[in-house]
Write a structure and sequence with these properties.
This protein is an alpha+beta fold and 112 residues long. It has one domain: Alpha-Beta Plaits (2-Layer Sandwich). The chain has four helices and four strands, in the order βαββααβα. It has a four-stranded antiparallel β-sheet with strand order 2-3-1-4. A hairpin with a 6-residue loop joins strand 2 and strand 3. Helix 1 packs antiparallel against helix 3. The longest helix is centred in the N-terminal third of the chain and has 16 residues. The termini are close together.
Length: 112
C-alpha cells in the first residue's frame, strides 16, 4: 500500500479553497486503486494532516498530474503558511480489530 500524507498549517480558507479542495479530493477518490483517506487536526496548533491510501502508486501518480492538484500547488501560499508531503510504502498493518478505519486491514496487506 502507498500513502501520501499532506501536512499543512492553514491561513484563511475561502470559497475558492474549499471548491478546489473538493475537486482534488474527488479526483483522489476516483483514481486507480484508491483505498481511502483520513484527516486529523491538532487542536492546539491548528496543523492539519490528511493521509490518502492507494493499493499501488498508479492512483497517486494520476493525482499528481491532475489539473486541480497542479493549480492548488501553484496557489498554495494563498491559503497555507507551510506544507509538507510524505509519500510512503506501508510494509505492514495490524491491530486488535477494535479500531475502525476508512481502509479495511485486508485491503492494506502488501508484499514487502
Amino acid at each position: 500500500m502507498i500513502t501520501a500524507t499532506f501536512i499543512f498549517d492553514k491561513k484563511q480558507f475561502d470559497d475558492q479553497f474549499h471548491a478546489l479542495d473538493k475537486l482534488i479530493a474527488d479526483a483522489a477518490r476516483a483514481s486507480t486503486d484508491y483505498l481511502g483517506e483520513e484527516t486529523w487536526e491538532n487542536p492546539t496548533s491548528g496543523r492539519i494532516s490528511t493521509v490518502y491510501y492507494w493499493r499501488t502508486e498508479i492512483g497517486l501518480r494520476e493525482l499528481m498530474v491532475n489539473p486541480h492538484h497542479l493549480e492548488a500547488k501553484r496557489r498554495y501560499s494563498e491559503w497555507l503558511s507551510g506544507y509538507r508531503v510524505e509519500i510512503a510504502k506501508v510494509l505492514r498493518c495490524y491491530g486488535d480489530g477494535l479500531l475502525s478505519s476508512t481502509v479495511e486491514l485486508s485491503e492494506m496487506i502488501t508484499t514487502a
